[in-house]
Amino acid sequence: MLKDSYPYFIFDGNADEAIRFYAEILEAQVLDTSKFKDMPNSPEDPPIPEEASERIMNATIQLPNGSYIMFSDIFPGMSYNVGNNLSLTLVYDDPAETRAVFDKLKEGGKIEMDLQETFWSPLYGNLFDKYGIQWQISTLGAEDSL
Question: Which residues are paired to 66 by β-bridges?
Fold first, then answer.
């Protein structure tokens, strides 16, 4: 079952500034902020480049009505275009449903990150659908709750 959805704003190195800006204007609470340097290190992964270390990997603000907006900077070297720097995130509690939705959205689209286990989700993927809308499809972990 779909558990939640929220907009995900993407920036090119200035997400931290944008988070503070939107939190103040919208009277929102900053719930969490993590930087690329905070990612768990795996021996088979290359080290995080210095120019990426202080960028925001993920952050969440909560609006006064309880809604969330999430934020991230792109990883250096990824393409970034003002105007299409927004994605919609869908969070499911069932990996089979996560996979089914991802598979339907990918038809005629472009996969950015195929479905896989990550340190924040047992099943996560990122794609652009055939209309150019970016989607992040995720499954809640056993310890997660919304």
Answer: none
Query: In the CATH scheme, what is the homologous superfamily, with its name and number, of domain 2-139?
Result: 2,3-Dihydroxybiphenyl 1,2-Dioxygenase, domain 1 (3.10.180.10)
SS3 breakdown of the chain: % helix, strand, coil, rounded to 5? 20, 40, 40
Give residue limits of the domains in the chain: 2-139
Nearest alpha carbon to residue 89 among 135, 131, 49: 135
pLDDT at 60: 96
**97: its two tokens:** 């449903």
For the chain, how many helices (H) and strands (E)? 3, 8
Which of 69, 118, 107, 112 has the alpha carbon at shortest distance from 89? 69
Cα–Cα distance measured from residue 136 to residue 70, given in angstroms and rounded to the nearest whole number? 11
What pTM did the predictor assign?
0.69
Q: Which among 135, 142, 68 is positioned nearest to 101, based on CA atoms?
A: 135
Q: What is the token pair recorded at 129? A: 């659908």
Condensed to tens digits (0 to 9), the pLDDT of residues 81-125 reads 776 688 888 898 999 999 999 999 999 999 999 999 999 999 999
